[in-house]
Specification:
Length: about 300
């Protein structure tokens, strides 16, 4: 009789534990959904607020004209750089404006491909940030630092992809259905890069934050540490998506391989410096995020057993 009662108690305890576990899981799923929705809403709300404020800027003719000039410059150079990247890599770096003879072309190409990661990383340091804030003289140099950074980075990419001297050797070029498929993968990689950039803060990635803040005569409002969208899957979706654009091209040449190997190494190593800055800025909050979200590969996380 006593054993029977103990069995009933055990069954009740087990059922209660399972019900509690299911309830916790349901609440966690609701929390995750709310966090994802909140992250998307926060990004969109912040971006809409920033853009809408540009239609009613405070008085100041010189400030407004300067801000608009920087806005036109950054987005023009940014668009030209992205277009040059898409077209040049689609053809495996076999079509460009560079006309140097070999072996000088090899040296020039090496310099072009190395200048981007070196200067790009330097400008993200504290010293680089101070330098960026001094490019534009006056009190708005700091406000425009994200815009000037985007201008410099875009010019670097434009020079790299527009002035590359092709080797003239084509190893493989997809045709027919294979070309359609590779073009689809290449396009998907660029869309993934756009999504990751939006999740990180489109106004910062595009350089719009600086000039739009100057236009409205206010301090830039930077996005919080990104943890939503693709940043819930891996910690470095921008770098991974950029690396994917390098390897999904429908044309392969020695030029494309050299570019892909160099910039992929950069995409794997450079975020380590970024994570040091994030750890210094966000402390324990970033360390907790770092423990729960993988670096570059979406490896499933183990769910602890609650029973």
């Amino acid at each position: 009789m006593r054993q029977s009662r103990q069995g009933v108690v055990l069954l009740q305890a087990t059922a209660s534990s399972r019900a509690y576990s299911a309830d916790v899981t349901a609440r966690e799923m609701e929390s995750v959904g709310a966090e994802r929705s909140g992250s998307r809403d926060a990004n969109m709300t912040r971006l809409v607020s920033l853009v809408s404020g540009a239609f009613r800027p405070p008085p100041g003719r010189a400030r407004i004209l300067t801000a608009l000039g920087f806005g036109f410059l950054v987005h023009s150079v940014f668009a030209a750089a992205v277009l040059a990247m898409i077209v040049a890599m689609y053809f495996g770096m076999s079509r460009s404006l560079g006309t140097l003879s070999w072996p000088y072309a090899a040296l020039a190409n090496a310099a072009l491909v190395m200048q981007f990661p070196l200067l790009h990383s330097l400008l993200l340091t504290k010293r680089g940030g101070r330098w960026l804030s001094r490019i534009v003289p006056g009190s708005y140099g700091g406000t425009l630092s994200t815009t000037t950074y985007a201008i410099v980075a875009s010019l670097q990419l434009l020079v790299l992809f527009a002035l590359w001297t092709p080797s003239g050797v084509i190893w493989w070029e997809a045709e027919g259905a294979a070309r359609v498929g590779m073009t689809g993968l290449y396009s998907a990689s660029w869309l993934l890069l756009m999504k990751a950039s939006f999740d990180a803060g489109a106004e910062v990635q595009s350089g719009a934050l600086g000039w739009l803040s100057m236009l409205q005569d206010k301090n830039p409002r930077f996005p919080d540490m990104p943890t939503g969208g693709l940043f819930r899957v891996i910690r470095q979706p921008i770098y991974v998506a950029f690396a994917l654009t390098l390897w999904t091209v429908p044309t392969w040449t020695p030029d494309q391989l050299a570019l892909a190997l160099t910039l992929t190494a950069y995409c794997l190593l450079a975020p380590m410096l970024k994570e040091r800055r994030f750890e210094a800025r966000y402390g324990e909050r970033f360390r907790a995020y770092q423990e729960n979200v993988p670096y570059a590969l979406p490896i499933p996380r183990k769910v602890p057993n609650r029973e």
